[in-house]
Amino acid sequence: MALRLACVFLFSLLVCSRIGHGIPGQPGTLDTSFNGAGVLVENERANGAIYDSLLLPDGKTLHAGNCAFAGSSVCLFKYEASGAPDTSFAQFGRAQLPALGGKIPENNDFYGRLGGRVATTATGMIVIAATCSVANTSSYVFCVFRYSENGTLDTSFGQNGIATVSIGGVGRSFAYSLRIQNDGKILVAGSCVVLDTAWSLEVPSRCAARFLDSGMLDTTFGEAGKFIGLRAPFGAAFSESSVTQLEIAVNGDLFLLGTCGVTRFPVCILKLSGDGVVEEAYGVLGDADVIAYTGPVSGFRQFQALRVYAEPDNSLSVYGRCAEINSTGSLCVMRLTPSGAADLAFGTNGYFLFEQLGMDTRTILRTNNGLLVSAGACGSATGNEFCVARYRPDGTLDPSFGTNGRSVLTTKEYGFFVNFNGAYTLLIQPDGRFLAAGGCSNPLFAVNPVCIVRLDGGVNQDLCSLDVDGDGVLTSTTDALLLTRVALGISGEQVTAGITFAQTATRTTWEAVRDRLASVSVDFDGDGRMLPHTDALLASRLLFGFRGEALVQGLSFPGMATRRTWPAIRDYATTRCGMTLQD
Fold first, then answer.
1. What is the mean pLDDT of residues 218-231?
2. Which of 168, 283, 406, 467 could form a disulfide with 389 if both were Cys (CB 3.0 to 4.6 A apart)?
3. H or E element: which one contains 261?
4. In whole angstroms, what is the distance from residue 270 CA to residue 273 CA?
5. Is pLDDT above 80 for 167?
6. What is the CA 25 to chain-centroid distance, rounded?
7. Are 358 and 377 spatial neighbours (Cβ–Cβ below 8 Å)?
């Protein structure tokens, strides 16, 4: 029964005495446990596409997109982890936003690509940002809706659950990105049209607004709650400028990733302080604008940014597509130093190219173990198809995923003929499975339903690694003790006090241990969260050699827990985490 504490981790894989129970599905294949087939098509309840998705702590998912019932509108769908509609939410799992002309712009919208526009607060309230038209006018405004967990509009927010703002004075504000700060304040950013008096032109500009938890504008942000960035620094007519993604650094600084230039390029990044003031020392100065100018990679003329990550050292990693004009191009990542300059020590002149794929990539996510997953559309004889690809840290396609690193969902018969037109959003579940959502078409009925697919992620040795101190070895005097202390609610330097770490340990401080536990998913009980009194305690018991009913004895599992017995936890640990455990 004793755990062999000398077992060595190979890529954080717990290897002990015999093969575990169960074999996971082939990575990149449809996970048939999702909706019975791996595919969910909302043929009867929607006519549009999903453009933003969110994974909830209880394992359920929220999806926002365009839909057409009585006119085009914004709809919010909520599903159980199984793919079934959450019937406790709104009308059988679907909420249609009030008729304000709400619209989530499509990815080919002139003013920029999409960012996140659905989020939840610390109390579980649901916030949606969209672009709304003003009745009987040609004006558009930022609009923010807040819903309760059960899908009813929260009338205490803004005016009857809705907050709106127009930025720029011209009456055309388009929302593309949404973030909720740790203090509950709501940031929305996008594009707003301003009058350029020097050129006598109406020019799109980067802009943002911040709302209080009440739905009122936060007047401590920018100017009276609004921020307007100067237009693209090229002095050219028809230049466009937009914020496509917000990133909040650990220290509260804001990064506004967007576009500036005559053809949406180059990528520009504005850095703001937490109160919405431009950090003028960041990036490259040009025409009174502060930008991080991203010049083209050798052989490419465009860099289209899709996602930005603020690294622990305050540098930025910007992932996107390097391409010739009007081509699908290759994935690439650009690294910027904390000052906003290209990190010339990274890749080639600050860029690193991934293996070429030929996919219209629309979204990118980085996993905890360094893999990169992208989703979008791949061309075929029948049109665009759902396409998901996985890359290894060295930039090559992961051959264990799908077919040579790529999973393409071609036209299928799913109760009716459906063409998968492409994915716009991508989620990675705690168990390593991938959920891609977007739009489909049904030529038999001339409708365009929203659709979701779930793909198996395979074994992820780093997903639930118990090697807390990073020395590659499991021991009771370090890893188990660290987990036990965290499980008991201890934090700060008391977590590591008195522990003698191996010379090869890479995580020996509270901050490093905390960040490690925050980046892995030791969700042994299956409630969608990592809790100290269940998951951390289960991990500690595993390290101390507990097996069978002794592992779960005396534990009080949360109501959402799906794994409460030794066989269930053992099978999860073996099929999803790559562990091999002995009864």
1. 87
2. 406
3. strand 254-261
4. 10
5. yes
6. 24
7. no
Residue in 244, 357, 234 with CA at minimum distance from that of residue 293: 234
Residues in contact with 374: Cβ distance below 8 Å, sequence separation at least 6, in sequence order: 331, 357, 359, 361, 363, 364, 365, 388, 389, 391, 426
Q: Which pairing describes strands 289-291 and 169-180: parallel, antiparallel, or unpaired?
A: unpaired
| Exposure string for 227-249, b = 16+ CB within 10 A, e = fewer | bbbbbbbeeeeebbbbbbbbbbb
Nearest to 467 by CA among 578, 582, 583, 550: 578
Tell me the pLDDT tens digit for each residue of 243-267.
888 888 878 889 888 776 654 455 6
474-485, pLDDT tens digit by residue? 787 888 888 778
Residues 409, 385 contacting (CB under 8 angstroms): yes
Whether residue 266 is preceded by a cis peptide bond, meaning omega within 30 degrees of 0, is yes
Could you list the beta-strand ranges (E) of 381-521.
383-391, 406-409, 412-413, 417-428, 434-441, 450-455
Residues of the chain by 3-state class (helix, strand, coil), percent to 5: 10, 40, 55
Distances (CA, A) of 371 to 12, 332, 390, 394, 469: 15, 14, 7, 9, 21
> How far apart, in Å, are the Cα atoms of 206 and each of 168, 185, 203?
10, 20, 10
Q: Is 542 helix (H, G, I), strand (E, B) or coil?
A: helix
Residue 463: helix, strand or coil by DSSP? Answer: coil
d(CA 296, CA 142): 32
d(CA 86, CA 345): 49
Q: Strand pairing partners for 407? A: 388
